Structure formats: structure tokens, C-alpha cells
Flavin-containing monooxygenase 1 (Galbula dea), 532 residues
Amino acid sequence: MVRRVAVIGAGVGGLASVKCCLDEGLEPTCFERSEDIGGVWRYTDSTDSGRVSVYRSVITNTSKEMSCFSDFPCPEDFPSYLPHGLVLEYLRMYARHFDLLRHISFKTTALSVKKRPDFATSGQWEVITETNGIQESHIFDAVMVCTGHYQEPYLPLASFPGIDTHFKGQYLHSRDYKDAEAFQGKRVLVVGIGNTGGDLSVELSRVAAKVFLSARSSTWVFSRVSNHGFPLDMVHTTRFNHFLEWLLPSALTKRIKFRRFNSWFNHANYGLASTKSSNFKIIVNEELPFCLLSGTIVLKPKVKEFTETSVVFEDGTTEENIDVVLFATGYTFSFSFLEESVRSLFDDNRSLYKCVFPPQLEKPTLAIIGLVQLTGSVMVGSEMQARWVTGIFAGWNKLPATSRMMADVLKKKPTVKRNPSERENLKMSFISYTDEIASCAGIKPSVLQLFLVDPRLALAIFFGPCTPYQYRLVGRGKWSGARDAILTQWQRTLKPLRNRVVDDSSDSSSGWLWICLLALPVALTAGFLLSK
């Protein structure tokens, strides 16, 4: 019987794990090597500590309603997209509300996590920690590793001939970037066009003499502001859209997607992406297209090599007098504190059962939380994982046999190993993954059943945004406020914008009623098909 649980890391995943342990009557102890909670969301000017944190200007790519914990909505006066300071404030509110801080040991580093000699029967772990130079050994029944993606910068210098032998300028990884002040008047090359590369290129374009952005793959650019000014993810991440993707032929779905991708601007004209692309990534950036249009950012292909002062690209073009190269090439994870026999069981999250459990372990008492790439909020995915895992630790949920878990892993594991800068292509569908984990945990809502007992709520769930409150309607951890949170999510979205009220007497309520009535048969059919 699992009782004592070690939680490593007090970021988003760690806080959710501590809370879920408490919900299940377990005894968590969280080890956090820094002096505070927040993980990467706790901004710091310094990079000396080795701790990864966000850059000063970062703003979330997912909206507050789609990113919050499932039983703790963001305050209604918070904007839809949050700067890092408000994310940290929200995490502090969450920790205070559920009294999590007393379970966290700060300035305590987990040095090693090893299986006990009797692990095959007990499933226990020995965790050695260090606080102020003093080491201590602990015995735990289970361990939840919550250190996330962003551990070690991925800097593939070998893929860029001349960068460390000929190039006389400066180069750095995006982990070491905090603001644009040091780049005033310089010619900068940014390598990598993920969300970070796009953000930093835009910010640098305001102060640098010129910014060049090197992209090796097709990239579709979205704005956070979607139809009628609503948040992008609240408009598009719906069960109705998910159902259509499942229902329609893949070729037609692809055509519809590309048409929507190009509805803002023609990406081929900007050299970003083509509808013929088979491998592509999606980033969120409102300003990048204008910077390309105004010439403050110049898009370039993959780098071929560096000389003393210039960079040569694969298309044969050269840009001279490059002062700084900024690598936005992602991160790797190592879990160096895990013993080698355990660490060797997985090389990425797809080697884990449901991206959480190493399936080869004799006892399922080690869980990796937050090591998942989703098309939506990782915060929601991490909490869902923690709820499922702690239910297993407490004996409410069960894992299948090792052979079945291994078969599931092999079926889903990509045939080609990707480097960290290409992991964007391996993102999993937000709704597919959260529904899958929710089904395992017994907390997935049935749209069809809801239509029979609460049609208004069912319509909001099926046609509206797939907000995390949906996973608090049924099962263990059911929250009495979930229904109201779902029905008022649009009000909380609009509340921060109501600082200047204008008269809009148009009444669209009757139109919305007709839309709902016409859509009811579609929703009922979808609920029936998806429940089979």
C-alpha cells in the first residue's frame, strides 16, 4: 500500500501532484532545489544557478480558461493571456488555497533516487537529498518526478560547422536570454522557429540593426486572437471540432486545416509554409508576419556553415557581419538523479506508458509528470496525469499487465527518433490525450448522458471550449463548482475587457438558441458514436 510519496520539483506539475496526493489521503513530501515555487514560471535575471526560467516578456500561448487547474479557475479579472508574473501569482494562490506549502522542502536537491533492495515486492525507493550541504536519506513508497521538459539546453553545435572554430561573434542558447537590451544595434541570427524563436526574433527586431530567422521546417503562424476577438484555443479546441476530425477523411481534414491556416495570410508568400508540406509545426505569434512584411525580420533557410563574421545558408546565400547567434533549439531532459537501471528504460516520453509510467518496472511506483507535448496546455495535462497516478497509488485505479503496456508503447512510439528541436512535430492532440487519461482515471464526462439530464451543460461541453472543469463533473475528485465554472467561462474571459463599456443593443440570443436546436441532433449522434 502506497502511503509516503516523494514529489521532485515544485513547479506546475509538482504543485498539482502534491494536491492530488492530499486528495487521495497520501502523504507527499515535495523537494524543491530553489527557494520558491513556480518552476520555469518564476522569472529571474540570473542564469548562474542553472535553473531555467522564462524570459522577461513572455506571455502564455494558451488562455487562462484552458490552462488553469480543473477545480481552481483563474480570477475573473486576470486577462485571458498571462504574463509570467500573473502565472506565478496564480500558482501562489493555488498553493495557499489548498495549503500545499507545508509539504514542500525548499532549497533541497534530490541527489539520487534508487530502488530499494526489496523493490520487486515493496516497490519502495531510497531518495537521498541535500539541504545546506547536509545529505539525508529517505524511504518512500512512490516517487513522482515533476521536473518537466526544460532541464538542459539542447545546443547541437556539431550541426553548425564553424560556429565554435571560426565564428568570432557571440553565440548563446535561448535559456540565457532575458531581454533585448544587450542586442541594441547588432545584427542577430536566431536559429529555430518554434514559439521561443518567433517571440525572441520579434522582440529583438525592435532594437537590433537586423534580425535573421533561420527555419528548417515549414511553420504555420497563428494569432492568439481568433474569431470575433476570442482566444484562439477557446474557439478551436472543442469536442465538436475534435469529432469532425475523427469523422471526416484525413485528406479532407488536411485541406480544411490548410485553408484555415492560410485564412490570416498566405504563408507561402512569406516563405513560411506550403500546403504541400508533410511535416510542419504551428506557432503562436501575432507580430511575426508584420515584422516579415516590414523587413525588420528576414526569414532564411537552414544554416550550412559559419565563417569568421558571416553565415552561409543552404540556398547559397550569405549574410555578412553577424554579431550574435541565438539558438532557440529546445531542451533535453536527463533525470540524472534516477539510477541508471531506471533511467535507461526510457529515452523520451513515448517510451513511457501514457507518457507517465516506465512499463518495465516490477512495481508501478514511479511516475513522470509533465513530460508531454500537447496541442494545448501542459498544465492541464500534468494535473490530469497527477490525478490518475495518485488514484493508482491509492489503489482506486489499476494499470494493465506489463505486456499490454509495452504493446501500447510500441504502437504509439515514433519510428524515427527526433531531436528536441523537432519535438513540436510530435505534439499530441490535447483532447485526445486528456480524454485518454481521464478514461483511465474514471473521470471522463459522457456527453450523451449529459444530454439526457442536463442539455444546456451538454451543449456547452460539446460545442464550447474543452476547458479543464469538464473533468470535475464525474468520478473521484468531482467538484460541485464544475458546472457553474463551465457555464460562466465566457463571462470570465470577457470580464477583463469591460473597462470601457459601449452600447451594443443587437440581440443575438434568439439566433444562438436556433443554432443550438439545429445542432442538437449532430451532438447526440456524436455523443453516441464516441461513447461506443
Notes: DSSP finds 18 helices and 20 strands in the chain. The two ends are 34 Å apart (CA to CA). The chain has a mean pLDDT of 93.
